[in-house]
Amino acid sequence: MNFIEELRWRGMIHDMSPGTEIELEKGMTSAYIGYDPTSDSLHIGNLASIMMLVHFQKAGHKPFALVGGATGMIGDPSGKSEERNLLDEDILRHNQNCIQKQLEKFLDFKCNPNPAEMVNNYDWTKEFSFLHFLRDVGKHITVNYMIAKDSVKNRMNSGTGISFTEFSYQLVQGYDFCWLFEHKNVRLQMGGSDQWGNIVTGTELIRRKLGGEAYALTCPLITKADGGKFGKTESGNVWLDPEKTSPYKFYQFWLNTSDEDAAQYVKKFTLFTKEQVDHLIAEHQLSPHLRILQKTLAKDITIRVHSEADYNAALEASELLFGKGNNESLKKLSEETLLSVFDGVPRSEVPASALKEGIDIIDFLSHETGIFSSKGEARRMIKEGGVQINKQKVIEDLRINETFLLNEKYMLVQKGKKNYHLIIKN
RNA sequence: GGGGAGAUUCCAGAGCGGUCAAAUGGGGCAGACUGUAAAUCUGUUGGCGUAGCCUUCGGAGGUUCGAUUCCUCCUCUCCCCA
């Protein structure tokens, strides 16, 4: 199965320029995708494009990951319109290194003959003078052409307008493609469907400036069946960096996807073959309550992004918290397992002396630990049966003391079904 | 510059002198059901406490026994005519 066919059955093609498939059939081709280096970690919103590069490399082509040190400074009008800050070079390099480390989990940067390669457009942009840019790049593209782009048009019609800087964005990105075409023989740029306009400016620039033929391929935006935005939770982005999003939370994110979404995500985010995926979906439909799709999806992605050990820990934690876990099984845990299971769960400390005397449950849940922002809220939730300590529901006139401690040091407070809080005796 | 409308608890949006911590809907949170789902149903959604009290309805004053509701000024938003 070739690259395009592979993407096609996975539903990862939104649009591509004519001739792309023929070009790829000619032999090993190079393609690139750009990443924003404004953070030192990628998030799962980047996952679809990463997978495009993975499939690309697996099909025997050479993938390039570009970090947009230069473009990141300008701000792409296709996305949100907030002003961006200039990143200084040190941070930029740091972010680039972190991003490369994450990409190494997916792409092979060492294999032959098609190792992945990382580039930073800051390298060929930083010395580029304004005049030089106007003469060398701006001359080839008409303003009429640029204005016709949806991203620009929308902003021109809106009350806020568009700054010259952001207007120029497509030229800077287009120049990247041009540069890579010339110096790295890159023939194809890929990305999310929102990047189509920018990518095509690149192919246009290549045609006019270099007389070359380059191609564009985009994948659809990842959607959720309920219309919500993919990749966001109440607590923000889901990051690939375990420091920012713990493997447990990461695993939970995928486990909690809806049936429809899971079927879509298995195709897009795992490397299972078409037969395997069809089989999984069929199996899931036979017995949806087993949630085979979600479990397989969560396992596969967690292992690839983190590790087998992280997956096992996340699984263990999940079973303990949602499955057969009860007061007894909690008490049996060693301190080490306890801490690893609740890694990433919010914590607060309580002085040993207070526990010795005993604390009123309401004070304990509000002032003492900050789990609830007011006593009323704590009281209300207890009445509703929404508070558990060490997996046992609590009542209002309870006093918390040392007998509640696990391993003589910890206490697990649960607000509702999914919100855990680890209390540590200080 | 002239004329008009409005600013209410997370959002939308009622209230138009006491019965208003403030209708209703949405959202959030929780409970039941369940597959750690969806749908549905129920409860809850200022603080302290559970008698009641305290701080809230753009800001500052005023009228009144009493104001979210009336008056004055200020700030901001929107609409129409120039």
Keywords:
426 residues; alpha/beta; Rossmann fold; Tyrosyl-Transfer RNA Synthetase; Structural Genomics Hypothetical 15.5 Kd Protein In mrcA-pckA Intergenic Region, Chain A; six-stranded mixed beta sheet; five-stranded mixed beta sheet; 22 helices; 47% helix; elongated; RNA-binding
Lay out the secondary structure.
Layout: H1 3-9, E1 15-16, H2 20-25, E2 30-35, H3 47-58, E3 62-67, H4 71-74, H5 89-103, E4 117-120, H6 122-125, H7 130-136, H8 143-147, H9 150-157, H10 164-167, H11 169-184, E5 186-192, H12 196-210, E6 215-219, E7 232-233, E8 236-237, H13 247-255, H14 259-269, H15 274-286, H16 292-305, H17 308-322, H18 327-332, H19 335-341, E9 347-350, H20 352-357, E10 359-360, H21 361-368, H22 375-383, E11 387-389, E12 392-393, E13 399-400, E14 410-415, E15 419-425
Parallel strand pairs: 2-3, 2-5, 3-4, 5-6, 9-15
Antiparallel strand pairs: 1-6, 7-8, 10-13, 11-12, 11-14, 14-15
Helix pairs in contact: 11-12, 13-16, 13-17, 14-16, 16-17
This protein binds one RNA strand of 82 nucleotides through helix 17 and helix 22.
